[in-house]
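Morning F.,

Quick status update on the modeling queue. The single chain you submitted on Monday has been processed. Sequence for confirmation:
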Amino acid sequence: MRLWVCLILLSIVLCVSADRFGLHRAGQFVRGAVGGTWDMYRAYRDMREANYKGADKYFHARGNYDAARRGPGGAWAAKVI
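Structure tokens below.
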């Protein structure tokens, strides 16, 4: 219980002391991650629609490429997915 209280207080202090630039970069990372996830999903949906044996490598590579072009957040999403 004490650990959770300490973590919450520490996160509040860090959030309050964060400058706008840091919050802006964090927002860009999250937007890139969401966009990268959408790119990966779109490639998966296209792969299912094509229904062609052996084409999965192309669609995975296309999804990774599109996601990675979105910046660090998209690259992170491509790596995780």
